[in-house]
Amino acid sequence: MDEEYDVIVLGTGLTECILSGLLSVEGKKVLHMDRNDYYGGDGASLNLTQLYRKFRSDQPPPTALGRDRDYAVDLIPKFIITSGELTKILVHTDVTRYLEFKQIAGSFVYRDGKISKVPSTEMEAVKSPLMGLFEKRRAKKFFEFLQGWKDDDPATHQGIDLDKDSMETVYEKFGLEPGTQDFIGHAMALYLDDDYITKSARPTYDRIILYTSSMARYGKSPYIYPLYGLGELPQSFARLSAIYGGTYMLDKPVHEIVTDQNGIFVGVRSGDETVKAKQVIGDPSYFVASQEAEGGKLRVLEDGKVIRAICILKHPIPGTDDSDSVQIIIPQNQVNRRNGTHYLIHETIRSRKLSPGLQLLGPIFEKFVTVSPLYTSVSTGEVDNIFITRSYDATSHFETVVEDVQDVWKRVMGKDLVLKKREVEAEA
Questions:
Q1: Which of 20, 168, 367, 423 is the most buried (most CB within 10 A)?
Q2: What are the pLDDT digits (tens) for 78-129?
Q3: Alpha-carbon span 203 to 196, nearest angstrom
Q4: Helix pair 232-243, 14-25: axis angle to 10 deg
Q5: Is CATH 3.10.129.10 correct for 4-99+226-303+374-413?
Q6: Where are the domains of the chain?
């Protein structure tokens, strides 16, 4: 390969595909490579045969499960928050034209041994068993305070400084019970643990406002989901990249990250071929494999693990009003865990045991379990032109993915990511 590119992108996870799409729109000459013959990388959506091939070797799926094409099983389940940053990127790039979405039927929270629906209307809030009558009044005042907050109007602050006061101080001001704090922190602010309570209240305020504004957008729940699985998302951004001249190579192994004598990135070797570029962006697994194969420079470190279980059921989850799609959140205090747990029928936690969530599902027809390492880059990439994205974390949404996109973009381009509304081409 004699051709030289501005950027080589390794892996077709969502983070990498968003970046390749946006870089192509920016006018960069992009080559995108993936060792797999499908899009999505670790976050792919698999049909039934692919799922059993991955987890059960050559065992075919049971005929009782029906047809292959009826399944799109996400290896890393996450939802899209309707007012979140990913939605903004989808809309601004017009990638929504390639996708169909489904709204999630409801969000549930585990408390005192049972699950209850997170209220989506005022009537549901009045009837909800999550809080008693007096606690509902206190919670109402708390939410009115958040909704009425204006940075430039001290009359709305009620003596609170969101940037200096902790969330614990805010909870105490409104006299909210520990169970209500659990509900707010984990089911609405979507924190995985309770570390946020002693920190500045501002990030929690932002998260709750994002949740409530997303809920108000469509009602029922604040989440949407690609109708044919999360694998549709990276494919759509790959299509965006291709429209602007991006080149894609699937089923292309990566054997070496080539650098010069000063450790500066030069190119990527696949077999006997080396393709050159000024910069490389890739998911951590490519650099783990490269450093192991070469015995070379350490570029990523393992920073924890995420255990995920994919369960196939033949019935709706008990206690969810026969909902066809749900999120169930189990706050850490309810099961004496260090980390909170978020369940999307798939179970996603940073712990050794999966039992609290699995017990809520009823009879399980089939279960597939993975343990995924979380990798962190050891450098920013500005010196050697090697930019490494983050592993998918245990959150149940894509906000941290977009944070990673924005962070990598700034390091690659030397400026903040500003979304540009692109012109819509006429379909052929």
A1: 20
A2: 999 999 999 999 999 999 999 999 988 888 888 877 888 888 766 777 788 8
A3: 9
A4: 20
A5: no
A6: 4-99+226-303+374-413
